[in-house]
């Protein structure tokens, strides 16, 4: 047996013993060299041969990782869920929020269970207004409505803008699944425009606006769900200018604004001279998902209709979580929290990019942003998505086809991109940095499908 073969046999004996599992880091070359009393150059050569056989993959300055054990797969009880959109447990500030809840109870004990103004706690709206001004959104507290998450804000705005289904709604393709579902539920006429890595076809966008039957454009400019794409400043300004010229309402869903972006990044609202853009924000992805707290900044003309709809649907948002969030922000704990979350997400995205750069086959098209929570993949057409989902679920990894984010042909009058292609969205927010290594297993499963 050659020395390189000896290294391979040693590695696979460790795999069979359960000491190295798929996606795990292999022992360093120095460690194996000492163990087998051979030169570490020989170990590195063996590792490179395993890499060429697609048994392991390497990350520059990060070592080697096991892709395929070649043995019977172990039963994994822990599930790694790439569909869940919530911060991982260690990022949720339970102790800090318990403190501010108690503080809120003490502060508002005389009025805690009274009805709150429909638009939300006045002090929270003022606090939120201060945050928005730092982000280039200049408004007033009386134009802010606190909602049960960004989802309620979207639904209220859709209902206010499309009374009796008049006019059409322009949506990105793909787009946020629940927004699409709600628009369909309301019976709104939908038109789609393809969202590409570099934005939109702005000639097509202007032609659609010029027709005059589009009342609103729902758009996620930063950290797009599901693709993770972010529009450039030039493109956001183009959208603001075109919407102003053709009198189209922009509904800007900036739900992930707090997870960070490049210096100087602004929302579309910043470029809207008329200040007629609806701006929507959420606290769920950086804070406490269960608290369901979001907000909408409304044009003057929409305040009455949206607050009336909110009053009819739920009367008001509970005072206690609003007061607690207000205290949390003013204390400086929220700023500390989002810095912690940003650092975690960015580290996971860097690791994911290293894995994909080292391992993905040429026919796999993928995008990993610097900020945000989504990884976007376009798989080769010969991949059976259902079979891939089942295969990975048996290994404890939960994924799902991204079909729900696309406009179905029977639901739209026009759509420039309703093709039935294999897309996959991976959400990294609830995945630990260690478990990000499971992307190697996903790539291994994709590689296992032969083009026929």
TrEMBL record:
Molecular function as annotated in GO: transaminase activity
Keyword Glycosyltransferase among UniProt keywords: no
Keywords recorded for this protein, A-Z: Aminotransferase, DNA-binding, Pyridoxal phosphate, Transcription, Transcription regulation, Transferase
SMART domains: HTH_GNTR
SUPFAM superfamilies (UniProt xref): PLP-dependent transferases, Winged helix' DNA-binding domain
InterPro entries (alphabetical): Aminotransferase_I/II_large (IPR004839), HTH_trans_reg/aminotransferase (IPR051446), PyrdxlP-dep_Trfase (IPR015424), PyrdxlP-dep_Trfase_major (IPR015421), PyrdxlP-dep_Trfase_small (IPR015422), Tscrpt_reg_HTH_GntR (IPR000524), WH-like_DNA-bd_sf (IPR036388), WH_DNA-bd_sf (IPR036390)
Domain HTH gntR-type: 1-69
Family: In the C-terminal section; belongs to the class-I pyridoxal-phosphate-dependent aminotransferase family.
PANTHER family for the chain: HTH-TYPE TRANSCRIPTIONAL REGULATORY PROTEIN GABR
Name of protein: PLP-dependent aminotransferase family protein
Taxonomic source organism: Pelosinus baikalensis
